[in-house]
Amino acid sequence: MNNKFEFTGEIKVYLGITFRQIRAKVDCKWAKAGDVGGWIEKEESIQHSGNAWVSADAWVSGDAHVHGNGWVYGDAHVSGNARVYGNARVYCDAQVYGDAWVYGDAHVHGFARVHGDARVYCDAQVHGDAWVYGDAWVNKPILCATRSDGHTFTVTQQNNGESRITAGCRLFTFPEARQWWTATRSGTPLGEETFSILDHLERMARIQGWIK
What we know:
Blueprint: E1 5-14, E2 17-24, E3 36-40, E4 53-54, E5 59-60, E6 65-66, E7 71-72, E8 77-78, E9 83-84, E10 89-90, E11 95-96, E12 101-102, E13 107-108, E14 113-114, E15 119-120, E16 125-126, E17 131-132, E18 136-138, E19 143-146, E20 152-158, E21 163-167, E22 170-172, H1 174-185, H2 189-208
Parallel strand pairs: 3-5, 4-7, 5-8, 6-9, 7-10, 8-11, 9-12, 10-13, 11-14, 12-15, 13-16, 14-17, 15-18
Antiparallel strand pairs: 1-2, 2-3, 18-20, 19-20, 20-21, 21-22
């Protein structure tokens, strides 16, 4: 039996999915009884006990689940088979989807994307335009830098301990990244800026102990 929240009767349809707005029936960590919350596709989207909550214009769909002390708010989207739990927060315009998990004290926010089989946990912060995907495991603040044209470069550690740099929808080792931008941007001001960013991020990764 769900004694935690009820539906307000408000609905909205997005991408062919019908979402229903929730309202808290009891106090929890992120809401007081009577507070109107966010939007979910299924009653099972939020744990019926504990402090998990969805608020503002955030929505949860598919088989995604928010439990523990997890909080999804702002304009954030959680979908697929994603999990948000522990003390994790997903907010602003962030998206977590696929089979991704966000847990511990991790925060995913801004326009960040976490998907695939990625894991973001402990005190990790994924933000800005960062993308974490594939088999990446992030358990500490990520390294990132943004080029003058708005292109963001993000360094994460894979679950095998190796560092990878994400740029847009591409995932590289540092040598692969230099090879790619040598082929596509060599001899241009944007290319020189890119190589400077790669040099900086690689030095920082070594300082962090991410690269031997």
